[in-house]
Design brief:
642 residues; 2 domains; binds 5'-O-[(S)-ethoxy(hydroxy)phosphoryl]adenosine; five-stranded parallel β-sheet; alpha/beta; single chain; GMP Synthetase, Chain A, domain 3
């Protein structure tokens, strides 16, 4: 690993330098409650909280609450509070799939559109605490649909447009959604995505939805169901542009976002209002430090936590201008990002390492043909960034003149936890550097020993922070089991990590059965259950293999029923099975038919061996004496090469 150090460029302007960061850290350590309450005061509260955190990670008194006596409305914090001073400032810049297909929405327009959605929800009987699903492209109406949930106190659950109808149905059922907001079609990289048709299929599988709101994106033909489906364009003008905000308790749920874990179905990660809002607003300010002059572009989709916290809530609470990009990095060409940065005057650009790796292989010319002079800060998120990609980002995209923030966090953490504060911390390519103020990481070994100094271990957090998830929707026990039992009294992140002699953190990736494909979390168990749904499959095991662009890819071992034999046609069918159950993002890179899987005598699959075989190793499998049938290993090696 590279240990190069890049000092903060001398002319980088920031409100937080090393001294200010020291002061924040000191305050967080010595007057913890005062420190957190001060962060909460960034928000407009209907009733200001007097209490900061009230939490325990221990089984006996387990629970996580923040600012619990406070009351607020998050849409008010994103919109109403800006109207007097920034009503005409651009809140969102929509940049469509085709370059220059751009729309600018001011804070006032976004406020009015949000109120219209809120009024429609109320007309349709959506009440405080009800669930609304959002399955949309990256259009400003999607942000308005989210903010309108916050306005009426409904809980949104945004589902990424790349998930299949079956996945949508599973989520509708799990959270018992009442209403869905969707669009006719999505449009990405010149291809259409049949969003409304997918919703229809999902509802056919799970008929509990009362109303479907369809926003026009492409104008493509869609079927409308009488009495259930509503075209946004038919009702929009009839809806009032004012809507009374519900006053919410700080601990009322704001949203559910489904994410994959090591076992079972995706979990509904629940975030609540006051703590999440405080954390999204605070981290946006500390890490990106956007001022009124900035144009902030986070390329994530709102179907992921990054889109929630840093396309919608963080920027809007801070009164910034946020770009909503409805395209892909390589369309119409590999210079799309930089052409768009120049055209829109983007000052802060935040993307995923996988996107950088896919652009890097196109060479420097697509970057250098654009000026990029407006950019003053770059960021990455979603997976470890390899030092080569970091250096390319630094040298070619940033011309060696702008800091890079490598931000480590998770759906569960609500916002960034480990990242450089860009004016205050020197950078090391590949390291997310140090925890933000108030964040207390620990490295722990398999024997539950907390490790000190320069070392490697499993990454845990010993203290809660306001943006921490509060529960798994409908299954509080699973929440506790998943995150707090591996290391009692600590939150376990699922990531492995190294800490160097300077106290810098280097996240090495998941240590559980979660695969990070192009920054998207995929649970091995989900893919396996999709594969075994095929009638010819007896058993399946899925592991991660390294991939130059995606970071990791999915390698699947499939055992067929006795007497069946594998073929390319069957591989296609299995691939289709995964697309149908989950979505294209989970499709295996490779499927190997295996007569049997390496199991211990107690029946546990030894994934360590499967990983090595998938990576092309032919020996050095370590101790295989615990296998029920050690000859399986040779069969696997032979099968990989065939
Ligand atoms: C990984 C995305 C290394 C990590 C915000 C984590 C990272 C998982 C980084 C969460 C980073 C995210 N460096 N690894 N800067 N950021 N990860 O829930 O394994 O989609 O546990 O949240 O992504 O993915 P999630």
């Amino acid at each position: 690993m590279s240990e190069a150090v890049h000092p903060v460029p001398a002319d980088f302007e920031s409100r937080i330098g090393p001294a200010e960061l020291d002061a924040l850290n000191h305050r967080a350590d010595t007057d913890t409650d005062g420190f957190w309450l001060e962060q909460a005061r960034r928000l407009d509260w209907a009733k200001a909280p007097t209490r900061a955190g009230n939490w325990s990670f221990h089984e006996a008194d387990f629970g996580i609450r923040w600012f619990e006596d406070g009351q607020l409305n998050l849409s008010v914090n994103c919109l109403d509070r800006h109207l007097a001073e920034r009503g005409d400032k651009v809140a969102l810049i929509f940049e469509g799939d085709e370059p220059g297909h751009t729309q600018r929405w001011t804070y006032r327009q976004l406020y009015e559109e949000t109120c219209r959605f809120a009024n429609l929800y109320r007309q349709k009987g959506v009440k405080r605490g009800d669930r609304v699903m959002i399955y949309m492209p990256m259009i400003p109406e999607a942000a308005a649909a989210m903010l309108a949930c916050a306005r009426v106190g409904a809980i949104h659950s945004v589902v990424f447009g790349g998930f299949s109808p079956e996945s949508v149905a599973g989520r509708i059922e799990d959270c018992d959604a009442k209403l869905i907001v969707t669009a006719d079609e999505g449009c990405r990289g010149g291809k259409r995505i049949p969003l409304k048709a997918n919703v229809d299929k999902a509802i056919a599988l799970c008929p509990r939805i009362d109303a479907v709101v369809v926003v026009t994106r492409t104008g493509g033909e869609v079927a409308m169901v009488e009495g259930r489906d509503i075209r946004w364009s038919d009702v929009r003008d009839t809806l009032p542009t004012e809507a009374e905000p519900e006053v919410m308790d700080a601990e009322d749920p704001l949203f559910i976002l489904y994410t994959s874990g090591s076992t079972g179905k995706p979990k509904g990660v629940v975030h609540t209002t006051g703590g999440y809002a405080t954390w999204a607003a605070t981290t946006f300010d500390w890490v990106f430090g956007a001022t009124d002059r900035d144009i902030f572009w986070c390329t994530a989709d709102i179907g992921w936590i990054t889109g929630h916290s840093y396309v919608v809530y963080g920027p809007l609470m801070n009164g910034a201008t946020s770009v909503m990009f409805d395209g892909i990095p390589t369309y119409p060409g590999p210079d799309r990002f930089w052409e768009t940065c120049d055209r829109l005057g983007v000052t802060i650009f935040y993307t995923a390492p996988t996107a950088l790796r896919s652009l890097m292989r196109e060479g420097d010319a697509p970057v250098t043909k654009h000026r990029r002079s407006s950019i003053r800060l770059l960021g990455t998120v979603g997976e470890p960034i390899n030092p080569e990609a970091w250096e390319w980002y630094w040298r070619v995209v940033g011309d060696g003149r702008v800091p890079i923030v490598d931000t480590w966090w998770q759906t569960e953490t609500g916002g960034i936890l480990i990242s450089p504060v860009p004016g205050a911390i020197d950078m090391k390519p590949g390291s997310a550097t140090k925890p933000l103020p108030g964040i207390k990481p620990l490295l722990v070994d398999a024997n539950h020993q907390v490790l000190e100094g320069a070392t490697s271990g499993n990454l845990c957090l010993s203290h809660s922070w306001p943006g921490q998830m509060r529960t798994v929707w409908g299954d509080h026990e699973r929440f506790f089991q998943t995150y707090f039992t591996a290391y009692p009294g600590l939150y376990f992140t699922g990531d492995g990590c190294r800490r160097d002699e300077d106290g810098y953190y280097w996240i090495t990736g998941r240590v559980d059965d979660v695969i990070n494909v192009s920054g998207h979390r995929i649970g091995t168990a989900e893919v396996e259950s999709a594969l075994v749904a095929h009638p010819l499959v007896a058993e399946a095991a899925v592991v991660a293999i390294p991939h130059d662009i995606k970071g990791q890819a999915i390698y699947a071992y499939v055992t067929l029923n006795a007497g069946e034999s594998g073929s390319d046609e069957l591989r296609k069918q299995l691939n289709q099975e995964v697309r149908q159950h989950i979505g294209a993002l989970a499709a295996p890179e490779r499927i190997q038919f295996a007569p049997s899987l390496p199991k211990t005598r107690s029946g546990k699959i030894m994934r360590r061996i499967l990983r090595k075989v998938a990576e092309g190793e032919t020996g050095g499998f370590g101790d295989v004496s615990t296998l029920a049938d050690p000859s399986v290993v040779d069969q696997l090696v032979a099968g990989r090469n065939s």
